């Protein structure tokens, strides 16, 4: 094990250990970011695959600029709020009661969202003629499945799962209604899993975990480990559903792992984390032309329907400088590819500032709207090792739905208080 891996894992351990201290907030942005990136760097520097390479000084510098810029953004907000009164975890959890939402309106919204999801699912199926999991080539089918327009609404599965969890916690419905809502969550989760897409399911799970952590005693710091296990299990399940015809040995050989085959089960999670950083540090030293916002704000071209035609016109290679089938580069790649070092510095700094600002607003004024927005922010931070989610159309769509629904179901008193502040 290299000295860099040892230091990274030690930092990760210290952050986690400190987070278990009574009264300490496990999901503060700097902690989550620190855990994710120290673990990712530690794993990547183990170099357990022959597909990995030694990072040169330029690669380390660019990666360091992105990480430090985000942390500077969070630290700036910390300094601004240093002497301001923020509520403790206990006080925040007391703020979330039945009175902050309109139960009748909330339930109607849930039924409507479930109806939209079901109709969208059936519509896409009838037009496409198949469900990806049952296709002869599921890996390819999952990328092509979905019709423009109606295909976007099927992603409403994410906010649907989240708002049902919120309703169950805040309203505490009677047994029959509670069972119906739980069955709706299970149905939505399983049917969406059949599309072989884990991104939005992870979005829903992480957002729900953050909501439960701040709104109740249900998810204390010591139970976060179990929640993370669920996320890891989801990664595994979708991977095997995608390629059930591929043996574990094939994945092991494809990844060119250095360790013994008896540990082959660790191949996918290890490569899933480490290759993002590998691809980034390899690509930043070879990039010659910038794309000036195409990737960072990809949702703008996607919603207009010109994304593919524009990419063809500009002859863009979405996955340059790869030496494997792993084609993600971490969040920082989009910023660097669009604007170079300026983008790699400015956008993470601004993102860190915004996420931390939402965090402190939620701590000072713990409303459902503020917590819902912050739960999405944590997902952005969590996925930063993998991809930049802020440019994805379906992410922007889901984020907008979550904000709209939350504002809609809050009681009039809460809305008045929000306007006053």
Describe this structure in words.
The protein has 421 residues and is mainly α. Helices cover 67% and strands 0% of the residues. Helix 5 (103-128) runs antiparallel to helix 8 (157-171), helix 8 (157-171) runs antiparallel to helix 9 (175-193) and helix 8 (157-171) runs parallel beside helix 18 (393-409). The longest helix has 34 residues, at 331-364. The mean pLDDT is 88.
Strand content: under 5%
Q: What helical percentage do the residues reach?
A: 55-70%
Tell me the Rg in angstroms. Answer: 22 Å
| Average residue-wise pLDDT | 88
Q: What count of domains describes the coordinates?
A: 1
- Main beta sheet: strand number and arrangement? none
Structural class: mainly alpha
Please give the alpha-carbon distance between the first and last residues. Answer: 52 Å
What shape does the CA trace take? Answer: globular
Instruction: Quickly count the helices.
Output: 19
